[in-house]
Amino acid sequence: MLDVVKAFDRVWHEGLIYKLIQQGLEREMIQLIVSFITNRTFAVSIGEDQSSIHTINAGVPQGSILGPILYLLYVAEFPRMPIDKNHFLGCYADDTALAVKSANANYAVSKLQDFMTDVEAWCTKWRILINAQKSQL
C-alpha cells in the first residue's frame, strides 16, 4: 500500500496544466481551471492575531467539487503493471495498493521492485511524495 503525502495540497500547477493540455481539454476550460487553482491565498489566525497573507503555489482546493477531479486527472498516468490473475493494482484517491501473486517469493519481490522503480521515477517527475511511514510492503 502506497500513501501519497498531502496529495491534494501538493499538486504541481504547471504539471497539471501540462496534463490538461495533453489530454486535449479546450483552451477555455483550461483557462477556467487555471483561474480556479492559481492566485489563491491564506492567512493563519490564532485568537485575535493574524499572520500576513501568503500565496498558495501548489495544490487543488479540498472540499470543492472540482478538486478530486483535478487530482484524478493529475495522477491518471500513474505507472501501470500488467493486470492479470497474478498482478493487482488498485487506486483510490491518494492510496494505491499493488500485489503480485507467485509461488516464487523472489519473483514476486523482483516484480514489485521493478514496479516501484517506475513509480519512484514517475513521482519524482510529477513532484509527488510517497509517505514511507504510512506505506506498507
TrEMBL record:
Domain Reverse transcriptase span(s) in chain numbering: 1-137
UniProt keyword annotations, A-Z: Nucleotidyltransferase, RNA-directed DNA polymerase, Transferase
UniProt key word Nucleotidyltransferase: yes
GO molecular function: RNA-directed DNA polymerase activity
Stated name of the protein: RNA-directed DNA polymerase from mobile element jockey
Highest taxon of source: Eukaryota
InterPro entries: DNA/RNA_pol_sf, RT_dom
Species annotation: Stegodyphus mimosarum
Keyword Transferase carried by entry: yes
